[in-house]
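Morning F.,

Quick status update on the modeling queue. The single chain you submitted on Monday has been processed. Sequence for confirmation:
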Amino acid sequence: MISRVRPELLIVGAAVLWGTTGTAQDLGDVGASPVAVGTIRILLGGLLLALIAGRSGRPTGPWAAYVVGAVTVAGYQASFFAAVDRAGVALGTLVAIGSGPVFTGLVALLASGERPARRWYAATGLAVIGCGLLLAPGGDRALDAAGLGLALGAGLAYAVYTVAAKTVLDRGVPGPTVMAVLFLGGAVLLLPTLLVVDTDGLVSGRGVAMELWLGVATVAFSYLLFAAGLRRLRASTVAPLSLTEPLTAAALGVVVLGERPGGTAALGAALLLSGLVVISTERATAVVPEP
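Structure tokens below.
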């Protein structure tokens, strides 16, 4: 069935599902800690991916990359959901996703000596200016500095996760297997936090509905769509299509949640998105699914 769908539509569909993550958290807010929400999300998604990957093959080394990847998957969940909670869905997602390619260039340079492409420098400049403008006052909701820091932390976690995942994928390990190990590993690391953070409401009807959407739609199903599309497209084609994620998040934040960032903040977000467009249209861009 999926094989009959145009690959471009599969990538866009996956990105749209990723873009609903912050809005789903906000609409399904039952008072639980963002860390608890992120933990249940990757646990459920990881279990489903493990079932899907059951016949794909067993994981093989390098094992250090799996450990680093699992740690950063856990860090991304904690940082991203907290950032969205404090900074808003539209801006929180744009900062987290927009800063990811910038951090990825730095991490790849430090980890393997891979020099960034020329466009990376332009994208970095746009991202830095954009983040500076986001700190300026304006709008009916002042951007929380801690929220911005958490969003940048999510972008850094995504960068390290990307490099770690690519290290394993380059050894020929099947994609579903890699993702299942990283997501389940991240969930195991976060599970102890459920003993100390607020989990109220997660077992309510509203909470269960939110977690089912986050785990099934934004992790397991979206990855299936993404993998099916990626097999039939070049990375240079996939990367721009993935921009649907922050666009979806921003649109839902404004239309559904009524978020109204000020003019300066909107300009900063636009510059961040512009930087993401610049780096994503680089031919050598490699795309790894958002954790």
